């Protein structure tokens, strides 16, 4: 592989190592991004998340063209909800709860139409798809073992929502020794102010959780 390349990032340059840097696309599922899913059941405006689709696709195209590792996650539960703590299912006063039947099938249940990744970003054969019962992608999943087997030490991160599953996953990854770079246009929140704040939290204090960079900075740096 080629040597490291420098991505203009905050709080300082990110030295991306070709072949060691996986693209991790978090929870770009119909249940979060389309009307009638889990996100909408909580009262959110799902159109806000659709802005992340095209930039994430640009990252996927770049990674795929180079043959670099791509991993996707889905926030999802078993049909019997045995991996969904009651405390998670009963949270709030949603119109529909996890496991209830909505217009895209049972919310956040594996195999249901709403649980699928949006068609524009669907995994290709050979790409890893990690089903995760939590907000963080390391909790109760094979993600760490998968990354180790691939020789991955850096994560370039996209997906939704910035301050929930993306930030939780970046914090988990950071504690496990991965360098994480969040691509700003490729992530979105139902609360734009939370997206902005999450990015600031990640890069503050010398990059206490990781780095952030615009899509153009990532794409222009790739060898
Ligand atoms: C949420 C996620 N927001 N993927 N999940 O419940 O961020």
UniProtKB/TrEMBL annotation:
Does the keyword Hydrolase feature in the UniProt annotation?
A: yes
Coiled-coil positions are none
**Which Pfam families does this one have?**
Isochorismatase (PF00857)
Key words of the record: Hydrolase
Any one Gene Ontology MF annotation carried by this entry is: hydrolase activity
Q: Which residues cross the membrane?
A: none
Domain Isochorismatase-like spans what residues? Answer: 21-209
Q: Does the keyword Hydrolase apply?
A: yes
Q: Report the Gene3D superfamilies cross-referenced here.
A: Isochorismatase-like
Which superkingdom?
Bacteria
Q: Any idea what this protein is called?
A: Cysteine hydrolase
Source species: Rubrivivax rivuli
